Amino acid sequence: MSETPPARLMIFLIRHAHAVAISEDPLRPLSLQGVDECIRLIRFFRSNGSLPALQFWHSPLRRSQETADRLAAGLAPDAVRLEAPGLLPDDDPEEMARRLDAVPPEAFIAVVGHEPQLGRLASLLVRGKAKPVLFDLPKGTVLALHRTDTATHKTGHPRWRVRWMVTPALLRALPGDGGMRPL
């Protein structure tokens, strides 16, 4: 009889969708392109169920909050949405890594933020060092990671593995919305 593998925490690092220029609106809400990116992500993940987030953590910046709100409303209306410290563009990724260390393994969390912080966070989680940065997340990109049972030697944080990554360019390149499958 086979055993069910232990639950592993999954996080989805999401760079906010495209926003208007600061000259157009200093608060930088989502642009029409950004709204379209959110719609494409929602359609894609509804078709395959690969983003089952129970919580959406986002930075205090409007473009991040709007991205989190749109994705949560379209994918998991009952998901908890919260503004989380440590997600601003220049924040040290160590703060978020420590917060993720404390999350129980059955959680599925979408973390919506900014570059360069998300790329540095992903690098820290996967290889134990934030620099050099291994990941560049274009606006509207989702990077899925799962926590392993091993820790990195440098930081003692759990080591994470990349599961998949979806970019807006990839979704634009796929024919139609039907039949899309996770990578």
For the largest beta-sheet, the strand count, sense and barrel status come to: 6 strands, mixed
Which structural class do the helices and strands define?
alpha/beta
Reported CATH architecture: 3-Layer(aba) Sandwich
Strand order of the largest sheet: 3-2-4-1-5-6
How big a fraction of the residues is strand?
15-25%
Spans of 5+ residues with little confidence (pLDDT < 50)?
1-6, 177-183
Task: Kindly report the name of the CATH homologous superfamily.
Answer: Phosphoglycerate mutase-like
Quaternary state of the chains? single chain
Query: Count of DSSP E strands?
Result: 6
How many domains make up the 3D coordinates?
A: 1
CATH class categorisation: Alpha Beta
SSE topology:
Elements: E1 10-15, H1 32-48, E2 55-58, H2 62-75, E3 80-83, H3 93-101, E4 108-113, H4 117-127, E5 142-151, E6 158-166, H5 168-173
Parallel strand pairs: 1-4, 2-3, 2-4
Antiparallel strand pairs: 1-5, 5-6
Short structural description:
With 183 residues, the protein is of the alpha/beta class.
Which key features would you list for this structure?
single chain, 183 residues, alpha/beta, Rossmann fold, six-stranded mixed beta sheet, 5 helices, 31% helix, globular, disordered N terminus, disordered C terminus
